[in-house]
Automatic annotation (TrEMBL):
The UniProt record lists the keyword Methyltransferase: yes
Protein name in UniProt: S-adenosylmethionine sensor upstream of mTORC1
One Pfam family recorded for the sequence: Methyltransf_23
UniProt organism field: Anopheles minimus
TM helices/strands, residue ranges: none
Function: S-adenosyl-L-methionine-binding protein that acts as an inhibitor of mTORC1 signaling. Acts as a sensor of S-adenosyl-L-methionine to signal methionine sufficiency to mTORC1. Probably also acts as a S-adenosyl-L-methionine-dependent methyltransferase.
InterPro entries registered for this protein in UniProt: Bmt2/SAMTOR, SAM-dependent_MTases_sf
Family: Belongs to the BMT2 family.
Length: 415
C-alpha cells in the first residue's frame, strides 16, 4: 500500500548548481551514468536505491529528489518529511531509552530499572508507540518495502530455518567444527552425539512487543515483554525471571497473564531484537545473555539484533567485544550480518563451553573486556573513528543533517 506522503510519481535528479534536472519515472528508472553508478526505483513504493560503488556508499529510502554534490562526489537523498506522527513516536521511544541511560549514570541501575517497570503509564505509551512505529512505519517503509532482505524479522526466521532445517542443517556443520576444536584441546576427546530432534522451532522472543514471529507456522513462539502490545505476549521482566531446571514448561500466572519462571535447557532459539539497547547498563545486558544461555538447549541459538545505521565496520570493535564477552559464557558466534539499519548476529550455545572460551583465548586483544556496551553508552559515539578511513568521502555537517532527516523515522538514531 502506498503511503500518503509517497504519492510523488517521479524522482528528480538535480545537479547541485541547479543547471540540470533529470526526471525519473516508472519506465525510465535510470540515471546518467556519469552521475551515479546505480539507481533503482521501485514503482510500487517510490523507493529509490542509490549506490556509488566507488565509495561503497549506499543510500536507500523513500525519495523525492536526489541531489548530487559534485564537490564531495557523493549523492544525498531528499526524503519526503517523516510524518509528524512518525517523529512523535520515535521521539517517545528515544526519550525513554535516553532517560534510562542518563538516570543509570547517576544512580544505581537496578533502582532505576525497578522504578521504570513500575511506571505503567509510560510502559503502555511506549508499547503503543513501538507497535505502531514498527508495523505502520518502520517495517514497511524502512525495511520490507525497500528491500525484503532488510527485514530483521525475516532475517531471524531465515537464520533459524537454515540452522535447524534444510538439506544439511547448519547445526551439524557447527557440531563438526566444535568437535575439531575439542580435539585440538584434547587429542583423546570422543563424544557420542545424538541427532538434534526438532519439529517446530521452540522460540523465546524476549522484548517481543507485538509478537512478530507468531505468523510463522514452523515456530512455536513464547513472546514476553515488560509491556505487551498484544494479547499473545506474556508479561515478564526477563531480568527478574527465574530459571528453574526442574520445570518442563514455563511457570505461568493466568491471572496476570505472566511468566514467572522458565525451564532450563528448553528453547531451540532465543531472540533479542532491539532489546539490549533498552537496558541501561552493561551488567543488565550481561544478565540477559547469561539467562538466555541457561534457557537454551545445548546447540540452541541466541539471535541478537542491534540498531546500527552506520556503515559496515563502524562498530566492528564493539561487536568483536560482544563476541569475546559471549564467548566467555560458552557461546560461539556463528553468523554476523549488517543490514541497512541493524547488525544481526547468531550465537550458538556450544555443547562444551570450552569451545567458546578457546576463541577468547586465541583472539583476545588488549581492548577486550567482558562488558556489553552500546555506542550510546559513550557520550561521544566516536569509538571506531579510525576505521572511517574506509570512507574516503569527507562528510560535511550538511550531509549529516540530510542523513538525520532521512532516518528520522527510525527510533534508534543516536541523538
Ligand atoms: C525496541 S523494542 C523492540 C520490540 C521488538 N522486539 C522489535 O524488534 O520490534 C524493545 C522491547 O523490549 C522490551 N523489554 C525491555 N526490557 C525488557 C525486559 N527486561 N524483559 C522483557 N522485555 C523487555 C520493551 O518493553 C520493548 O517492547
Amino acid at each position: 500500500m502506498k503511503f500518503a506522503y509517497v504519492c510523488v510519481l517521479f524522482i528528480l535528479i538535480v545537479v547541485e548548481n541547479g543547471s540540470k534536472a533529470y526526471p525519473l519515472d516508472e519506465e525510465s528508472a535510470t540515471a546518467p551514468e556519469d552521475y551515479m553508478d546505480y539507481v533503482e526505483l521501485d514503482p510500487m513504493d517510490n523507493v529509490a536505491e542509490l549506490q556509488k560503488t566507488s565509495t561503497g556508499r549506499t543510500w536507500l529510502g523513500l525519495a523525492t529528489t536526489l541531489i548530487e554534490k559534485p564537490a564531495h562526489h557523493a549523492f544525498v537523498f531528499h526524503f519526503p518529511m517523516a510524518t509528524q506522527e512518525q517523529l512523535e513516536l520515535s521521539g517517545l521511544i528515544k526519550s525513554v531509552h535516553q532517560r534510562l541511560r542518563d538516570s543509570a549514570k547517576q544512580q544505581d541501575p537496578e533502582t532505576v530499572w525497578k522504578e521504570h517497570v513500575r511506571d505503567e503509564g509510560l510502559l503502555k505509551s511506549y508499547a503503543e508507540a513501538m507497535h505502531k512505529l514498527a508495523t505502520c512505519y518502520w517495517d514497511r517503509t524502512m525495511e520490507v518495502s525497500c528491500k525484503r532482505s532488510n527485514s530483521r524479522i525475516e532475517w531471524v526466521v531465515a537464520s533459524c530455518r537454515c540452522y535447524f532445517h534444510g538439506a544439511t542443517p547448519l547445526l551439524y556443520l557447527f557440531r563438526e567444527k566444535d568437535d575439531k576444536v575439542m580435539q585440538a584441546i584434547d587429542a583423546g576427546y570422543r563424544y557420542e552425539h545424538r541427532p538434534y530432534t526438532i519439529d517446530r522451532i521452540k522460540l523465546l522472543d524476549v522484548g517481543s512487543c507485538y509478537d512478530p514471529f507468531a505468523s510463522f507456522p514452523d515456530f512455536d513462539v513464547t513472546a514476553i515483554d515488560i509491556a505487551p502490545a498484544g494479547s499473545s505476549v506474556w508479561h515478564c521482566d526477563f531480568l527478574e525471571a527465574e530459571v528453574n531446571k526442574t520445570l518442563s514448561i514455563p511457570s505461568i500466572s493466568e491471572q496476570h497473564h505472566s511468566i514467572e519462571a522458565f525451564p532450563g535447557d528448553h528453547y531451540d532459539a532465543i531472540v533479542f531484537s532491539l532489546l539490549l539497547e533498552y537496558l541501561p547498563s552493561s551488567e543488565q545486558r550481561l544478565r540477559c545473555c547469561r539467562k538466555a544461555y541457561d534457557l537454551l538447549k545445548p546447540e540452541g541459538i541466541l539471535l541478537i539484533i542491534t540498531p546500527d545505521s552506520r556503515h559496515q565496520g563502524a562498530n566492528a570493535k564493539l561487536m568483536k567485544n560482544w563476541r569475546y564477552t559471549l564467548g566467555l559464557m560458552g557461546f560461539s558466534r556463528i553468523k554476523i550480518e549488517k543490514l541497512e539499519h541493524v547488525t544481526c548476529m547468531v550465537f550458538r550455545k556450544c555443547i562444551f563451553p570450552t569451545v567458546g572460551k578457546r576463541w577468547c583465548d586465541i583472539h583476545r586483544e588488549a581492548y577486550m573486556e567482558p562488558v556489553l556496551n552500546i555506542p550510546q553508552d559513550f557520550n561521544e559515539t566516536k569509538l571506531e573513528e579510525k576505521d572511517d578511513s574506509a570512507m574516503d568521502v569527507p562528510r560535511t555537517d550538511e550531509d549529516d543533517g540530510e542523513i538525520r532527516q532521512a532516518f528520522a523515522g527510525l527510533p534508534f538514531l543516536e541523538s
